[in-house]
Amino acid sequence: MANCQPTLCLSLSLLLLLLCSKPVNSQQPQANISLGSSLAAGASQDYWLSPSGDFAFGFQQVTGGGRGNSFLLAIWFNRIPQRTVVWSANRNELVPDGSTIKLTEDGNLILADPSGRPVWNPNSVGSGVSYGALLDTGNFVLADRNATVLWESFDQPTDTILPMQTLARGTELIAKYSRTNYSNGRFKLDFQTDGNLEFETTHYPQMRSNYPYYESATVTADNLSYNQSGSLFIASTNGTILGNVFDNRESRNDFYQRVTIDHDGVVRQYVHPKRNNMSRWPMEWTVSDSQPPNICTGIKGFIGNGACGFNSYCQMESGMFPRCNCPQGYVFMDPTDHSSGCVRNFAPQDCVVKDGNDDDGDQFDFVEMVNTDFPNGDYQFLNSVSEDMCREACLSDCLCDAVLFRVDGQCYKKRMPMSNGNVDPANGGKTLFKVRRQDSTSITNKKDHSHLNTNVGWFLLGGSIFVNLIFLLASCPWRKNPPNSIDGETLDRGALSSNLRRFTYREMETTTGGFKQVLGSGSSGVVYKGVIGDHSSKKLVAVKVLEKMHEMEGHDVREFTTEVTIIGETNHKNLARLVGFCDEGQHRLLVYEFMSNGSLADLLFRREVRPNWYTRTQIAYSIARGLAYLHEECITQIIHCDIKPQNILLDDSMTAKISDFGISKLMKANQTRTTTAIRGTKGYLAPEWFRNVPVTAKVDVHSFGILLLELVCCRKNFMMEVEKEEEMVLVDWAYDCYCQRKLHKLVEEDKEAMEDMKRVERFVKVGIWCIQEDPSLRPGMKKVVHMLEGAVLVSKPPDPSSFISSI
Ligand SMILES: *[C@@H]1O[C@H](CO)[C@@H](O)[C@H](O)[C@H]1NC(C)=O
Ligand SMILES: *[C@@H]1O[C@H](CO)[C@@H](O)[C@H](O)[C@H]1NC(C)=O
Ligand SMILES: *[C@@H]1O[C@H](CO)[C@@H](O)[C@H](O)[C@H]1NC(C)=O
Ligand SMILES: *[C@@H]1O[C@H](CO)[C@@H](O)[C@H](O)[C@H]1NC(C)=O
Ligand SMILES: *[C@@H]1O[C@H](CO)[C@@H](O)[C@H](O)[C@H]1NC(C)=O
Ligand SMILES: *[C@@H]1O[C@H](CO)[C@@H](O)[C@H](O)[C@H]1NC(C)=O
Ligand SMILES: *[C@@H]1O[C@H](CO)[C@@H](O)[C@H](O)[C@H]1NC(C)=O
Ligand SMILES: *[C@@H]1O[C@H](CO)[C@@H](O)[C@H](O)[C@H]1NC(C)=O
Ligand SMILES: *[C@@H]1O[C@H](CO)[C@@H](O)[C@H](O)[C@H]1NC(C)=O
């Protein structure tokens, strides 16, 4: 089985463990759990199922815990590979093998360790209980003979709220400590006794509330409800809705969903398809909404740390995930725990009274961190000084660990420990960290924090998206470069002469049987399956209905038709062929040949069995050649603008074809830029989309680079469900592995790839060249083809973001 995705291997092995050891008695859904029933923690993996089988109640083995204590009594989603825990009884006191959960004859629910010592016993209700049941909502209840519920797990939530669950005032959810550690963490969701909902930091390890970074301001509310249709809202007893936290639009019939306060303090609403037949959705948890928008800048308390530990700084990655980093010269106090804060990796400046000053400022230098601030570290302020004076003031002051300098002459001296560090354009200026010069003695020889550059780059990308998007929306005209002087008539003839068929809307309705079967939907419209031709020669097609958005972009009819004609003239075996189009009134449709083997996204991310290494290399070559053709061989250069696995289709012989030219941008061959609206898909977009710089064919090269790394590793660029934080962003991880000469980590478990490490290395190097922040450093697609094929030597790529961090 070719795959190289660590978490997948993990969940597969869990699954295998499960399959091999599932006892007979727990395979049947358990309607009522009678008095005297019990489960034991251990290899047998006993659990009780809800009637639908969606949820299970029992023991989950987790890592860590020390001295063999590794079982969590939990409720989890049982039909998905991740078996996501939604509730647990003993998160702060894991129990060992041989522990039991028993519903006693006298109606008590007791978790006991192997010696019989009770670890957890929730129901003070005592007598009256006549049975227990795990309901289809994921709620475990104890009820009396009349089915009146006496105790329910919904009343004692852990870190997750499920649909149909209502929290009363005074209920708290506490985040996990880390991705893999379930014990109490540093953030909580607090539905206060007065009805106000807050997300707060705690005075960890105490759970008392510290700083609220989200407030609903709904005093007088009675309930926090997650209703059937997926809204999380705050209401009063009489039903009046006082505030809405999340509003999910995915149907509960097709999706599992949950709201969780994650270990990073962000409260996220997640959805997960129930069945593998929704092409737009990967079979994993997808964030449908989250609060607060930027936790890195949202926490401002004076006591305690911010979203990250002391002396570390926080930045949002891909606009969604806060990541904690250490300044250059600093390392995590606990390397396995990125929330532990950072400490110096060098001897600090002497700060004692003595006669000579042998350890003065000239042993030290500064590391610059643009737009970074540690707002709580300031102890002295100098105004109207030059940067040199600011630096000098810090070098000559042994108390000073860093300075924030702004171009208007503001200089803030800072000292440790610094908290609430974050990177944000609104901070302005730069923080200069005082570090010992490399030639002077340092405590250890540990490698400097090599993430720095990458991270700053990521941040600038992530953090500036919003600002620039607004800028673009506000100040840039929608694209306006229609190839002129083509009148409708010549165009029609042109269209007909190029084998491109023009359909009426009515024909399209017939072709698709009334737009019934959805094949997928992308950024620019929904794609339906259709059939054209008469009885003798039927042909399957994919019909894309473009959304109205296109009209806003100033596409007049003529322009649309022109684009279509140009695309229709492309002819390459790695491009999905355009068969025809429809352009009638408001209706704009594109008809492509049908690809029977689906999209590359399905192939890479959704199948249990990953495509083998050979197939993946062939797909990489195909895409590169198709792009080279679009960029360099067409009369009119075509920039695709949305290269991603969803837009690569596979025909019945598994040949990869680039599809979806719906949002392509056509340019005359000599044109280097247009001011244009952002097109494309987050995650694959090149940074220049967000800056006021020319957008060229190099945006496709960037997207291709990310896709190439995904192909090598069979995983998505961004993945939450990973073992180690540094593996969350594939491009960062791949670059780190490359620098550390540990490329094998990327393709572990993939035997074929492991035996072809030369090619793996070549592909990764090409991928890194393609994702350079500076578009001019990225090779053209022709060159990429040659590099992939090994026809030209691939030199050592620079850090993808070195360009940005030197600004
Ligand atoms: C569970 O037990 C209660 C009380 O005995 C009974 O009313 C209910 O029908 C039982 N439920 C199922 C699904 O057997
Ligand atoms: C989880 O983290 C806490 C705090 O660092 C630690 O005390 C505990 O042992 C960890 N638990 C596990 C299972 O690793
Ligand atoms: C169940 O209902 C009956 C009739 O309403 C009542 O008499 C009885 O006390 C109830 N039993 C319990 C345990 O609540
Ligand atoms: C809302 O809260 C009130 C008072 O705590 C409670 O009586 C009521 O049942 C709750 N509503 C729902 C839908 O649970
Ligand atoms: C859930 O709540 C939303 C408003 O928050 C409301 O529009 C929707 O109708 C509710 N759904 C159900 C099934 O009550
Ligand atoms: C419901 O309760 C809220 C506050 O508790 C109050 O403002 C509102 O007027 C009530 N609405 C109705 C219809 O009673
Ligand atoms: C997926 O399959 C289920 C049943 O197998 C069906 O009810 C549902 O409509 C299907 N969804 C789509 C989008 O085809
Ligand atoms: C691709 O399609 C062909 C024909 O439809 C089929 O035989 C083959 O199994 C498919 N391959 C994959 C990997 O799905
Ligand atoms: C681009 O090409 C057109 C026609 O081929 C020509 O008129 C124009 O001057 C060229 N522009 C530049 C910047 O070279």
Search tags:
6-stranded mixed β-sheet, Hepatocyte Growth Factor, 21% helix, binds 2-acetamido-2-deoxy-beta-D-glucopyranose, 5-stranded antiparallel β-sheet, 28% strand, Agglutinin, subunit A, single chain, disordered C terminus, 16 helices, 807 residues, alpha+beta, 5 domains, disordered N terminus
Q: What does this protein look like?
A:
By secondary structure, the protein is an alpha+beta fold. It has 5 domains: 156 residues, Agglutinin, subunit A; 126 residues, Bulb-type lectin domain (Agglutinin, subunit A, Orthogonal Prism); 131 residues, 3-Layer(bba) Sandwich (Hepatocyte Growth Factor), CATH 3.50.4; 140 residues, 2-Layer Sandwich (Phosphorylase Kinase, domain 1); 207 residues, Transferase(Phosphotransferase), domain 1 (Orthogonal Bundle), CATH 1.10.510. 21% of the residues lie in helices and 28% in strands. It contains 16 helices and 46 strands. The strands form 12 sheets. It has a 6-stranded mixed beta sheet with strand order 37-41-42-40-39-38. Strands 3, 4, 5, 6 and 7 form a 5-stranded antiparallel beta sheet that branches. A hairpin with a 4-residue loop joins strand 20 and strand 21. Helix 12 packs across helix 14. The two termini are 45 Å apart. 45% of the residues are buried. The N terminus and C terminus are likely disordered. The structure holds 2-acetamido-2-deoxy-beta-D-glucopyranose (NAG) (9 copies). The site of one 2-acetamido-2-deoxy-beta-D-glucopyranose (NAG) has 2 residues, from loops.
